[in-house]
Design brief:
The chain is of the alpha/beta class and 308 residues long. The protein has two domains: 4-154 and 203-305, Metallo-beta-lactamase, Chain A; 158-200, no CATH class. It is built from nine helices and 18 strands. It has helices spanning 43-49, 67-70, 73-82, 98-106, 161-166, 173-179, 241-247, 252-262, 280-287, and strands at residues 4-11, 25-30, 33-37, 57-61, 89-94, 116-121, 126-128, 132-138, 146-152, 158-159, 184-186, 189-191, 197-198, 207-211, 229-233, 266-270, 293-294, 301-305. It has a seven-stranded mixed beta sheet. A seven-stranded mixed beta sheet has the order 7-8-9-14-15-16-17, covered by helices on one side. A hairpin with a 2-residue loop joins β2 and β3. The longest helix has 11 residues, at 252-262. The radius of gyration is 21 Å and the shape is globular. The structure holds zinc ion (2 copies). One zinc ion binds at residues 64, 66, 141, 213.
């Protein structure tokens, strides 16, 4: 299995699409599991254009219920149904927004042969999977909005299976506990993680944040500090800073300063206002404050190793 995280920039526009830009959305793929961040209109064609499968998406994280971030949900679900999906589909929305999303889905009058689970997130809500943790980050927008941090679970060290078997530990959940650094009790004896783990081989998992839509946060959230990749909205350039304040969106310059303060490694700007012909001004502005910045085009793909 590949140990790369693939990041697909499916769209990069804000509010409405342009001839060359779809609305902002990012797809992450890691070890065969697909995580979608926002689902605007036209999401299906964008997923197909990067040769990914709509029915193989298991998690959808919606930042907020402005139309440019969720109007594509029903089409996505309809295609899953047409392809006879039977696996659960998990959607995450801001706290208090579950009913609005369910109303939107039920207005389609579609019947689904699979379960749609809708979860509401609050600040620091964590979805803990075996190899990945997704944390919700409270943003500053005109309606409740949450960004997400996607992190590969750290490896505490190398697990010595032979040592564990010699200690008569049965394979299964007890192995996992030891790998997580916990001690276990077996036949009245305590076995510590240290006995079967070599901590010299500790590995830190990569971390990617998606912060869209928001006025630049005054304080860097803990889960964003030192990220390998920060994907942040930059709806406006400094020329339209009043508009950014009014609509609670970000200015390219401020995002650059935020990335610097957060000590992230790379910054990718998305959610560019359709008023700009292209992202050249946005990029020029941000680079003055944070050099390692990029303005991806729709359908750009990057990949990174999962561990440092
Ligand atoms: Zn938006
Ligand atoms: Zn918005």
């Amino acid at each position: 299995m590949s140990n790369k995280i693939k990041i697909y920039f499916l769209g990069t526009s804000s509010s409405c699409p342009t001839k060359t830009r779809s609305l902002t959305s990012v797809l992450l793929n890691y070890q065969g599991v697909n995580y979608l961040f926002d689902s605007p209109e036209n999401i299906q064609q964008q997923i197909m254009k990067v040769n990914q499968s709509i029915i193989k998406i298991d998690y959808l994280f919606i930042t907020h219920l402005h139309g440019d971030h969720y109007f594509g949900v029903v089409g996505l679900l309809a295609t899953m149904q047409l392809n006879q999906r039977d696996k659960d589909f998990n959607i995450y929305v801001p706290f208090g927004d579950k009913q609005q999303l369910l109303n939107f889905i039920s207005a389609s009058k579609l019947q689904f042969g699979f379960k749609i689970n809708v979860f509401e997130v609050k600040a620091n809500y964590k979805l803990k999977l075996e190899k990945v943790i997704v944390t919700a980050i409270k943003l500053n927008h005109s309606i409740p909005s949450y960004g997400y941090n996607f992190k590969i679970v750290d490896k505490l060290g190398r697990f010595d299976k032979q040592k564990a078997l010699k200690l008569n530990i049965p394979e299964g959940p007890l192995f996992r506990k030891l790998q997580e650094g916990k001690s276990i009790k077996l036949n009245g004896k305590t076995i510590t993680s240290k006995q079967v783990m070599d901590y010299k081989f500790k590995k830190i998992g990569k971390s990617i944040s998606y912060l869209v839509d928001t006025f630049v946060l005054s304080k860097v959230p803990k889960s964003v500090v030192g990220n390998d990749i920060l994907i942040h909205e930059a709806t406006f350039t400094i020329e339209h800073k009043e508009k950014a304040k009014e609509t609670l969106h970000s200015v390219s310059k401020d995002v650059g300063l935020f990335a610097k303060k957060a000590k992230v490694k790379k910054l990718y700007l998305v959610h560019i206002s359709p008023r700009y012909l292209d992202s050249s001004e946005t990029l020029k502005e941000v680079k003055k404050f944070f050099k390692n910045s990029f303005c991806p085009n729709d359908l750009d793909v990057i990949e990174i190793e999962d561990y440092n």
